[in-house]
Amino acid sequence: MTVPDVLHRARDTARELAWLFKGVMGENAYQTYLDHYERSHAGGDPMTEREFWRDRTDRQDANPEGRCC
Amino acid sequence: MSNKQSGSHRHADVLVTNPDLPPVAVDPEQAEAEDRRWTPAKIALWVGIALLGGVSWTILAIVRGETVNAIWFVFAAVCTYLIAYRFYSKFIERNLLKPDDRRATPAEYKADGKDYAATDRRVLFGHHFAAIAGAGPLVGPVLAAQMGYLPGTLWIIIGVIFAGAVQDYLVMFFSMRRGGRSLGQMAREELGVIGGTAALVATLTIMIIIVAILALVVVNALGESPWGVFSVSMTIPIALFMGVYLRYLRPGKVTEVSLIGFVLLLLAIIGGGWISETAWGVELFTLDRITIAWGIIIYGFIAAVLPVWLLLAPRDYLSTFMKIGTIVMLAVAIVVTRPEISVPAVTEYATTGAGPVVAGTLFPFLFVTIACGALSGFHALIASGTTPKMIEKERQTRFIGYGGMLMESFVAIMALVAALSIDRGIYFAMNSSAAATGGTIEGAVAFVNGLGLTGVNLTQEALSTMATNVGEESIVSRTGGAPTLAVGIAQIMQGVFGGAGMMAFWYHFAIMFEALFILTAVDAGTRVARFMLQDSIGNFVPRFRDTSWRTGAWICTAIMVAGWGAILIMGVTDPLGGINTLFPLFGIANQLLAAIALAVCMAICAKRGLFKFLWIPALPLAFAAVVTITASFLKIFSPTPAIGYWAQHTAFRNALDAGEESFGTAKTVAAMEAVVRNTFIQGTLSIVFVVLSIIVIATAILATIKAYRQGGGPGAEDAPTASRIFAPAGLVATPAEKDLEAQWSALEPGKRPARSGH
User: Fold this and answer.
1) Do residues B398 and B101 lie in contact, with contact meaning Cβ atoms separated by under 8 Å?
2) Complex ipTM
């Protein structure tokens, strides 16, 4: 394997890890929502990013998630 | 063959795949063939794992050297987990659950892009792990270390394989098949009104006791520690800042704000060190335990009524960030430093039950002291509800449910290693109650050396040096497990980063890490309990059902906070020491909840007509039931005052009646009255728990017998829907799965059916 190959692969791995980490932190939630919205061909405009995150925490207000001991 | 696949072909007519799309599931026969094909490389790999595991267990259990290296704990645990995951969880999958990837999961058929959103299995594994792992697996093993290293290690590893991971996997699977229904709803459906109501009341009571005891752990860790009080209280303004940042400045930048929060957290820890060296800082932040307890009670109320975005959500991000980071860091540090452990395999406390940390013999008290990490009923509340709504494919439940719990078990093993790596004399000085040590260095040295432990010779210098190293005034009687673990982590981490000069930082880092989890669990627990209470009261006063009704929310929050707050204050002021009398209640409550969850699972399996494999949930259910009912009975009926709450109660009441002015560790009449009161409450709670659980288990057994007579029963599963998406089941895709993935990614984007993913 040549040096550029190794660098390329390292960059890919780093990207994968960053994606995984963001996913675990929950950062991908808006993108997930947009993807769903686009593919489900619903009418009207999707929520903006700001509206989405507001809606998300407001829904958590009404449906609390447990955290374990 | 046809018999084996009856589960997956039951709904063959409904689950027709779209002929224009690639298959949504690996052909079962092909998957089976892949599983059964043992190439030489695969055989060599598994033989290697088995051998390494076998050698590690031999060294831990049979070889008796002066010391044992911590690396053997890691190898024994990891090799056993791998074997259990590959063989036992697969056995459960194949024979009991029979997941069918042609069936859509709730995340697909109820998809809304928000709560119901198909999530990549690796991401969901992380989510689920972050939700189940908390302070529990860190604290229990530390307290159980008094019995030696072997009982705890065996129970954590064997318990998780046959009980804890099975419970999580089953509950998650059944909840997924029911559109993500909660454990309480499933109990009502499967066990009827009596069993369901008992399960609900038990869950509510158990949540109160669990929150109270977790809060007690924090109070004990922060009492008389200006550094700890400062840095942990700084998490509140940090979380508020993060909340405002996410709401108004940069919505959705979760990783960014968590990094900022983490840096601020480190500054708070460093700042705490400076403050604890100034006279005004010591004066301002040295708080006694009762004040801290009241602080947590007030904080718990406010946090539970404030909007989620302001405090709870950002603190949760911070806690997840710390959790993943610290656990990875600790695993690396243990492998790098490989501490030598000089604790005996089994100590005399396992048989005499006279251990100063928690009273009671190995059976049953080891199994209630270590709850989380081996079997934790609380997980059933997480594994039903949130996670099942995000699962992409049915077969992934094995990786996420069973695998996620194995991971938590590994955290417990690391906590045990950290606790075992510190000097035994210091361990006992830290974990014996102030009632025994008098809270002074001299008292602690006299008490610990008086225990007559071979090889333990504690000196005053050892205690004061350790206290100075970790930046505390004193480390005597810092019960609750958290400070001991923090000393263990500090010792391990300073071997990798920073040396002895950094020990105080690492100690307070570990305290912060535990306090963060616990405070998150306190507000989330109070909130969840408040909603459960509102729902229950709503049966009589319908207005309480409306969760946006401010007055109702405040009343119910106040009731829940008063419940755990009262137990917390009781624990803090307990003349007998607090944690050693209350911790068994925590474990018993948690295991009884596990028994309830397993009982529900057993009833479900019976209704599915799977009697041949009913032992899979019945075995851990029987064990959990025997352990917790025995432990409860001992707590209720034991004539030994150190163990039986009522024996203690009667002894102190008789002493009061006889006009004595001091008795045992209670030096005043007021303290004696406190013991009488506390043991009454603890004894009553024990009775309540055991009665409720017996009702639930009995109704589950009745439901099982009824199903057996009828050869099965009506299932409450959602109607099957055909799936239109594909994803691999495990961490790494198999060749057949890779092939399907390639076919799916070759599809034009427009033709792909609605789904959400990365």
Assistant:
1) no
2) 0.93
